Amino acid sequence: MTSLSIPVKFSRAQQQIGLLLLLITLAGAALRFYKLDYQDFWHDEASTADHILSGRLDVMLAKVFADGQPPLAFFFNLAAGNLLGESEWALRLPSAIAGTLCIPAMYLVARRWFGYREALLGAALLAVLRFPIHYSQEARPYAWLLLFSLLAVYYWLELLAALRAGTPMPRRAAALYFLFGLLAAYTHYFGFLSLLWQGALLLAAAPRRASATIGLMLAFIPGYFLWLSQLVRQFTGGRAHIHIPPPNTGTLKFQYRILFNDAWYRTSDWLPQSVAGVCILLALLWCMRRAIPLLRKRDFAAIFWLPEVTLLIAWGFPIAFTYFFSLTIKPLYVARYMMAVLIPAVLLVTRGVTQSPWRKALPALAIALLAFFTYDLLARVDYYNQPSKAEAEHVMRAVLAAWQAEPETLRLACTSDHIAAYYSRKFAEPQLVQAHACSMTELSGIDSLLGVRPYRQIALAVSVSTVEPALLAEFLERYCLLEHNIYYWSDFYLYETQPCP
Questions:
Q1: Global pTM exceeds 0.85
Q2: Helix (H) or strand (E) holding 173
Q3: Which residues contact 374 (CB under 8 A, 6 or more apart)?
Q4: Which helix (H) or strand (E) segment is 71 a member of?
Q5: Cα distance between residue 34 and residue 29, in whole Å
Q6: CA torsion, points 189, 192, 193, 194, in degrees to nearest 10?
Q7: Confidence at 381, pLDDT banded by 50, 70, 90
Q8: d(CA 493, CA 13)
Q9: What is the 3-state secondary structure (H, E, C) of 89-103?
């Protein structure tokens, strides 16, 4: 009997590399699934829950359109919600899965760009950095954006190598690049940014085959026809990203810091960013050593195609383009939207380590780098015990507890409708929030409620939003403050509806 299967034999080195990658992926998965529901939902995640609440596709698409987003990642949230319920754990599960898959995807990209050493170190670094872990534990599209961007880059590298060798683009690689690039754009609009610099470099690699490259890149337009009209309507109708302020130099500093373990609650600590910066600087120095002989020969094309130079383009172009677009046309710069720039940033760090002249010390250097960032995540940042999102559930539970202790409690909130609606559903209390209380313009409505019923207390939950100081001053003048609890990005106030003695 003839077997149709052909046994594949792996060398001992390949088996060891595969085992190491498996262990790295499992460790990264543990970091992403551990305490997946520890952080409260903040505004954007509560809006995700609101999008998929009905369980219907047409309703979800209408709400995603109103939110100024493309739809793909919300399909995964919708499926998770329908199968597992509307809990924080269930809605964050798709992101945790995508974030875990990013680890072997980073390995593939780094191996194709450089080699096995950079691939293993790059995958391990992605596994322990706070930035990808944080967004692997958030019910938003960013982990999926990173995954599809990685897979698109993997096949883009094959196209680039073929064009630079003077051969036609492989059809399979072109099809898969188109697929994953399109999926990235359907996940988040910033997926288009990567296509711009990737297309430009493909054109530069083989100007004589420009027609094939242009054809491939133009194919993304009809490929996006399912959502293209909604995209145009979102941006021309002012629906998209109306809340984003213009960027400044501080935005660029934060962009770099957040890639390497920065957090909102972390101040005046540049150590992890300095460690990463030293590695990047070393990578550029090793690159300059190789560039100097080429410069003497005036071989500028060879300098341009040095891999570190390509990485700088992949890192710098999306940031520069979005920054100037935001200053001149429409503010769109948000650090988390730039998820794809993590790819070249991590690769430059790994390159700085692997190109060290102390080759015998390479394993020790790699382990030390990973140990430092893991220690920084677990101990110095205290990621799994320190709230890093607005503690909306805490203040909403405080309102519920006050109401249960005293039924004659007027329940107010200064927060997004999404947060109020989500936790009202979670606590099975549709009337948990009776009115908004963010500004003085809402005071007359509050007075009307107090005039209808003799409330003894007022409970006010503040989360993400800010209460006008004048309104708080008015409350202090009229009522007696019984309790004020401060949470991360949230506050709870409890007043007695009588002046203090």
A1: yes
A2: helix 171-187
A3: 128
A4: none
A5: 8
A6: 130
A7: confident
A8: 62
A9: HHHHHHHHHHHHHHH
| Closest by Cα among 475, 493, 476 to 484 | 493
φ, ψ (nearest 5 deg) of residue 247: -80, 165
Of 422, 490, 432, the closest CA to residue 462 belongs to 490
Measured CA to CA, the distance from residue 331 to residue 243 in angstroms comes to 9
- The one-letter code for the residue type at 298 is R
Task: State pLDDT tens for residues 18-77.
Answer: 999 999 999 999 999 999 999 999 889 999 999 988 888 888 998 888 888 899 999 999
Closest CA to 467 of 431, 495, 491, 483: 491
Dist CA 431 CA 411 (whole Å):
9
- Kindly provide the b/e burial profile for residues 463-480, where b requires at least 16 CB atoms within 10 angstroms of the residue's own CB: bbbebbeebbeebeeebe
For the chain, the distance separating the N- and C-terminal CA atoms, rounded to the nearest angstrom, is 97
CA separation, residue 227 to residues 60, 117, 201, 206, 389 (Å): 14, 40, 27, 32, 31
Tens-digit pLDDT profile for residues 275-293: 999 999 999 999 999 999 9
